[in-house]
């Protein structure tokens, strides 16, 4: 004979399986079928939410790792740019690319060494520095002892004309 089970009826243990004392304690612990179904649905929903949170955590960790790599790359680029600027690089982009290529080949990244090596092997990428601050050519001075750059600066200040300012800047660059 089969018992019909409805969602609200408790599950009944088979009396042949257990003795009378087990039946009483088991009967006290039984949960109605409808409630068991609700618990199961809640458990499945909780497992789905947990899985979604794990996926979200993995995605966030990937973004964090990517952001850390970007920060390291930007800091390295900033250091390369600062060292190349200090070394008077003419073409900063080309010098940066060559420096980054040299650093990527190194076992231990030493940007300063890579810039010095680049300056030694490719001096055409850098401005020539005069020895000890002494230029090879002395600035031209007119017969009255005035520097033409100073005169051009005074004239540019007085007139405010762009041509005078550019003349002063050209003279200053030559000196």
What's the Cα radius of gyration? 41 Å
Query: Could you tell me the mean pLDDT?
Result: 81
Domains, number: 2
Low-confidence stretches: none
* Share of helix, binned: 55-70%
Question: End-to-end distance, in Å?
Answer: 114 Å
- The H-and-E topology, N to C, reads as HHHHHH
Model description:
By secondary structure, this protein is mainly alpha-helical. It has two domains: 95 residues, no CATH class; 30 residues. The chain contains six helices and no strands. Helix 2 packs across helix 3, helix 3 crosses helix 4 and helix 5 runs antiparallel to helix 6. The radius of gyration is 41 Å and the shape is elongated.
Short description:
With 175 residues, this protein is an all-alpha fold.
Give a topology summary:
Elements lengths: L19 H10 L3 H54 L5 H14 L5 H11 L26 H12 L2 H13 L1
List keywords for this structure.
mainly alpha; elongated; 175 residues; 2 domains
